[in-house]
Amino acid sequence: MTKYVIKRVLLMFLTMFIITTMCFVLIKLLPLPAIRQMGRDVNLILAKREQMGYNRPIMVQLYLFYRAIITGWDWGVGEQMYEGLSVWGVMVQKLPYTVLVNLYSILIAIPLGLGFGIYAALKKNKWQDHVISTMVMVFISVPSYVYAFLVQYIFCFRLSWFPLMLESASSASLISWKMFYSMMPAIMSLGFGVVAGLTRYTRAELSEVLTGDYMLLARTKGLTKAQAISRHAMRNAMVVILPMIIGEFIGILGGSLIIENIFGIPGIGSLYITSINVRDYNFFMALTVFYTFIGLASGIVIDISYGFIDPRIRMGSKK
């Protein structure tokens, strides 16, 4: 298991290096955006460009880029937005908003998804199961940004239950009921798909487990239906469901890119989209590395979690 983890980590960094290098080279082939002369930090940006070798060959720039990151964790400064400010400093300020909205949505979605999935499995082939399965297919098929517009129209505009946009960070603390209430439209938009996905996986796995011979044996030994489900069925079903929950959190972190823009959440998702629109290459590279790392690390965590959840599974072992 240790050798497998080390191998996967090394492959992760190799993959991240290849992706980062490709993005850097392709970005440098595009025309360099001009600095807005009205900016207050023109000289600082010009000095930073000189330090990063903007007028030198691409391979030299790539070397300087990696050297600045490894030796000083220097990702450059903003050129087209947040002019002159540290890219990493701005990301650290905005990251809590992205983490918080995704954390709220996944924490609310997990019990709902598990509950609906368990209920559908116990009512298999009955009308309750058919209704839940139909709703699951509908919610899985619709993109999250469509939910965002529906939530805005129904709950924010027609019913006026929630604000259309996030409250200003200056008027509400990040960890407060006011901020949570203001984030509810975004949380709902992100959560619908997660609830549907968890419901489908839970129903499928639990339905298969409930038909196993060991479940019949557990009942013949005197266990009640509830005891057999909680002690045996759920434990075996969670071998597949728990890694899926971990994957859902990572997936929803990437899926909040558009949602943050729609609801005005000042997180790194909206920052990423803005950096693409205004061609701020420093922000684009830093955020690309961030999302690439999240995606690759999640794959390792999901694979390793199988071995911890079920000791019979040993990833990468030789037979």
Question: Overview of this structure, please?
Answer:
- By secondary structure, the protein is mostly helical.
- The protein has helices at residues 2-28, 42-51, 58-72, 87-122, 127-141, 144-158, 177-210, 213-220, 225-263, 268-278, 281-309.
- α7 crosses α9 (225-263).
- The radius of gyration is 24 Å and the shape is globular.
- The two termini are 13 Å apart.
- The model has no long low-confidence stretch (mean pLDDT 80).
Key descriptive features of the protein:
mainly alpha, 319 residues
SSE order, as H and E?
A: HHHHHHHHHHH
What does the overall shape look like? globular
SS elements, strand count:
0
Strand proportion: under 5%
Structural class: mainly alpha
Main β-sheet description = none
Q: Which percent bin holds the helix content?
A: over 70%
- Calculate the mean pLDDT score and round it: 80
Number of helices: 11
Distance between the termini: 13 Å
Rg (C-alpha, Å): 24 Å
Low-pLDDT sequence parts: none
